Amino acid sequence: MAEISVTDQEVEDWQHQIEDIVGWFDQLQAVDVSGVEPAAIADGKEQGSLRPDVPRAYENRDAIMESVPNKERSYVKVPKIM
Amino acid sequence: MFQRRPLQLATRLLNAAQRHTRSAGVQSFITVDDDQVRRSAADIDERIRAGDGSSLGPLAGVVMGIKDTLCTQGLRTTAGSRMLENYTPPYDATSVGRLRKADMLLAGKCNCDAFAMGSTTEASDYHVTRNPWDQNRVPGGSSGGSAAAVAAGQCIATLGSDTGGSIRQPASFCGVVGIKPTYGRVSRYGLIAYASSLDCVGPLARCVEDAAAVLNVISGHDKADATSSTQDIPDFTQGLEPRESLQSRPLQGVRIGVVQQMMGEGVAEGVTAAVDRACRHLESLGAELLEVVVPSLELGTPAYYVLATSEASSNLARYDGIRYGLSSAGEKQELKALYRNTRGTGLNAEVKRRILMGTHALSAGFIDAYYKRAQQVRTLIRQGFHDALQQVDVLIGPAAPTPAFELGTVINDPLTMYKNDVLTVGLNLAGLPAVAVPCGFDDKTASNPLPVCVQIMGRAFDEARLIKVAHVFEQTADFAFGIPDSCSQNGRI
């Protein structure tokens, strides 16, 4: 799901590390959270408001295209999908 | 902070930066913008000579470094990762744009752990930054380059970012001032995202007043960041009196809560002793000290790492080899291979581990057990800080449980490294502000004493009060400050 290639050596090196960390996360299971609302964002009365989703044209298109690793004319080039 | 002779100062600081960029030095920077800073400094010099000084901004001639997680238009921005080795942003982060408008001189981009994931700056893909107090030790992280640049006298101030302590811990390791503002006080626009509900941009500087002057400039609402605050911005430098103007008990009436969970087990003896001494000093200045417990604080570290890695797994999905950054499909010219190979080769071990853990925590079947539960614990911690701050005006505790680590001691042991964040992450979960200010040294008798900071924490948007308390402390606590030998030849700045 993460779309990351990992080597056999990485799997070997990280297996125990990640197991230990996930095991450490498990202490959260012992906490009594009944009736507690989850908090997605930090404190603040006014925060978390969504702005209207209004599209706007970005003036500096050339600079954005400059960063594209593979392109053809003004198009972004990707490997064959279908 | 206004500098009368910026070119002379910029040249001196750049020389210091260049000296420390060499392999044997502190190596605070990934990129130094030598020509541009000299040109800008000469321009400001000229404007002052021409009698046009009144048009200059409040940071005119102030040489600053910017953490490499903040976008700088026309200046390479790598986030400490090979993934962005050749990335030059087409725009400035809002905080950087505001500093430019205030006429700061941008010296360059400070080293950091890749994508701000780390506590030592050893997880930078470029080089290891060394602690100016002892070059066998780390400067902390992830804003280690920003803290080291100030401590080594290469910059007057720098910007860092603090997702779980990444300003306060390196400030402590390097003996400089760091401010982690309230979440939303400073726009995150142009900050390369790690964990968006926790990330904060803030200043590091040699003294409280300089850090406050930078905070003045970078604070405020930004329509490009929906979570940035519309709260009024006070002048954070107002009322910061020099020592000779202070009354004998300038903190009379201030109630300070010493967080009990931050003073016991797991905190090095030398750190506790330095913070104890700072507390006695604050008492002598008239403050009333109370022992306070922040309920649920100890649950902060696992909850933080569940949430931060989950958000990171989503935020870092953008590094796919298509729109910018590294692109490497390997032998198979297929889309999935492009994603996997680009990410597999362009992201370092620490970043990949965190993305994998975050992906696991968000996956169907686990999301309630990890992500949702961590959010519920976040509510408990937020409530815990709220309750504690009902009893007192500010809270105090060490900014890090130990002085600077020796190089190589925690980089291969991620869980130990994560547990060391215990004193800082809770505040990020609650979104509250803190000022880290040097309070002394772990062992004065050692040949290489290492600096220690206290963090003064407070209510949302109450930075001005924290800055005042930190400033009074700084002005009166001679025992708390020093300059590393390695930069004494640069003079006090």
From TrEMBL, chain A:
GO cellular component, one term: mitochondrion
Residues spanning the membrane: none
Gene3D superfamilies (alphabetical): Glu-tRNAGln amidotransferase C subunit, N-terminal domain
InterPro entries: Asp/Glu-ADT_sf_sub_c, GatC
Biological process (GO), any one: regulation of translational fidelity
PANTHER family (UniProt xref): GLUTAMYL-TRNA(GLN) AMIDOTRANSFERASE SUBUNIT C, MITOCHONDRIAL
The name this protein goes by in its record: Glu-AdT subunit C
Taxonomic lineage from the root: Eukaryota, Viridiplantae, Chlorophyta, core chlorophytes, Trebouxiophyceae
From TrEMBL, chain B:
A single GO molecular function term of this UniProt record: glutaminyl-tRNA synthase (glutamine-hydrolyzing) activity
InterPro entries the record matches: Amidase, Amidase_CS, Amidase_dom, AS_sf, GatA
Keywords: ATP-binding, Chloroplast, Ligase, Mitochondrion, Nucleotide-binding, Plastid, Protein biosynthesis
Main location group: mitochondrion
Subcellular location: Mitochondrion; Plastid, Chloroplast stroma
GO biological process terms on file: glutaminyl-tRNAGln biosynthesis via transamidation; mitochondrial translation
GO cellular component: chloroplast stroma; glutamyl-tRNA(Gln) amidotransferase complex; mitochondrion
Key word Zinc-finger present: no
Catalytic activity: L-glutamyl-tRNA(Gln) + L-glutamine + ATP + H2O = L-glutaminyl-tRNA(Gln) + L-glutamate + ADP + phosphate + H(+)
Function: Allows the formation of correctly charged Gln-tRNA(Gln) through the transamidation of misacylated Glu-tRNA(Gln) in chloroplasts and mitochondria. The reaction takes place in the presence of glutamine and ATP through an activated gamma-phospho-Glu-tRNA(Gln).
Family, similarity comment: Belongs to the amidase family. GatA subfamily.
PANTHER family per the UniProt record, alphabetical: GLUTAMYL-TRNA(GLN) AMIDOTRANSFERASE SUBUNIT A, MITOCHONDRIAL, TRANSAMIDASE
Subunit structure: Subunit of the heterotrimeric GatCAB amidotransferase (AdT) complex, composed of A, B and C subunits.
Miscellaneous: This protein may be expected to contain an N-terminal transit peptide but none has been predicted.
Protein name according to UniProt: Glutamyl-tRNA(Gln) amidotransferase subunit A, chloroplastic/mitochondrial
Gene name of this polypeptide: GATA
